[in-house]
Amino acid sequence: MLELINVRKTFNPGTVNEKKALQGLDIKLNEGDFVTVIGGNGAGKSTMLNAVAGVWPVDEGRIILDGQDITALPEYKRAALIGRVFQDPMMGTAPNMWMEENLALALRRGSRRGLRWGISKAEREMFVEKLRTLELGLEDRMTAKVGLLSGGQRQALTLLMASLKKPKLLLLDEHTAALDPATAAKVLEISDQIVRENNLTTLMITHNMSDAIKHGNRLIMMNEGRIIFDVSGEEKKNLTKAQLMELFAHHSGTSLESDQVLLSK
Amino acid sequence: MTVTAYLASLNILRLFKNMPGGIAQGIIWGLMALGIYITFRLLDVADLTVDGSFTTGGAVAVMLILAGQNVWVAMLAALLAGILAGLVTGLLHTKLGIPVILAGILTQFSLYSINLRIMGMAANKAVSVDKFNLILSSRHVPSAILKGILIALALISFFYWYFGTEQGCSIRATGSNPNMSRAQGINVDSMKVLGLAISNGIVAFAGGLMAQYQGFADINMGRGAIVIGLAAVIIGEVLGRAILGKKLNFFGTMSFTVLGGAVYYLVVIVVLWLKFNSNDLKLFTALIVALFLAVPYLKEQSRSSFRALKRREDSKNA
What we know:
The structure holds two protein chains of two kinds. Chain A is α/β, with parallel strands linked by helices. Chain A has one domain: 3-Layer(aba) Sandwich (Rossmann fold). Chain A is built from ten helices and ten strands. Chain A has a six-stranded mixed sheet, with helices on both faces. A four-stranded antiparallel sheet of chain A has the order 2-1-4-5, with helices on one face. In chain A, strand 7, helix 6 and strand 8 form a beta-alpha-beta unit. In chain A, helix 3 packs parallel to helix 5. The longest helix of chain A has 18 residues. Chain A is globular and about 55 Å long. By secondary structure, chain B is mainly α. Chain B has one domain: ABC transporter involved in vitamin B12 uptake, BtuC, CATH 1.10.3470. At the A-B interface, helix 2 and helix 3 of A face helix 7 and helix 8 of B.
């Protein structure tokens, strides 16, 4: 479904701030894979997602999604194939626009935007139905400006927006990191629900190792711009945090005292 | 001059006589402010092209009318000229990476030369309502007000429709959150260019109306248009919120923008009637706009600033 072949990206090349963020990244996702991504700070997790989303062009390598080489496609064109939720709840929605307007914009991802009316009655009803399944009471606030919603509500809305027009790939970039634990759990639950219902191929970055083990069918660990570890199926299900840390130490050549080190590295 | 002598010299009848003319001119400025509303409020950019494109609209309209063209054809040409000006600013910004404020200043600056060329190197071109069939004129103020209102209603209805369409929503989304817009497949650069083009088209159209109303196009007629437009937008918002409150929708906001232009110009008329020097008008306008732009910030500051915190603490301890 998604294939990255020898992808490289260096930020600020030739300066003191040079950062080799991706150093020959290779990965292949199968259709329906729900992959959790872990790794220390600066391991290249977000950079990988941004490379796939097309936030900037990569230096080298190829990105193939659904059989199509998207390496040279700008971000807004790739959006037709990709749904995204960001770490910052402010980033995924238009705060000055109504909730139903945000949803209507998302429904048209990948379509030509012409002079037809921006939202139809049937769509409005469909949005209410979909919002009801989130069980956040959002269905009663269709004409509230999204800027008035809480962080958790916005992330839930962004999730719905990312899946409204079924994408080939869903990118979740630490989308619960800015939320309190209870809200984060609820948003993760919604994420699971949406991925399952739509059978979405998904890449989810998380800083929480338990979440990484609990969710998805496959787990990858990144270090210094490469994937150092990739498990799926039964082997992934039976992973423990201790094993993960051991694996990290083994593959990265550093030993770890606790998961705190992994988080802050 | 003593105060009584000054007051005695003020003729209230003259004020009333000048008011209708002020309303008519204010409505035309209000129409221009609709264009500024699109960039300033919907796209979230301050576009300084308008000082030039307003004049361009006036110059193009007057020259074509003088050449014997139908007045509506002339207005259409003014609209297109403005769209072109906005296009230039938009492309300078998106294709060449020039900050939008600077891009606007560059276009506006270059338009001075272009406007002079349009007017055949004259700084001023008169168009007489006696010789030509103009849309409106200061010679027939009541009809000018009526036509101004009709044009305003037509424009507002058009925008109400347009910004509700898929394309219009994309422009609004771009102004609200460009990141989200890109992630939803919107070509943010194209939407900025489109918004700037539409905005300047409307501004130039208003310039064409103003030139007809005052009976001439002048190379300096657009000077300060951005400030007057902002004044109209802000006055309109304050009035709209005060009168309609939460019921203020997009249609209402735009209507109040035009009304804001009229109110602004009525204030000008009153200030002039009070015998202030007309050369000081720009200073007054700038002060008023600065004040209104500052109000939301100052309100927020008075609620949550370190100084306010200290004041609260001090009064608690006192």
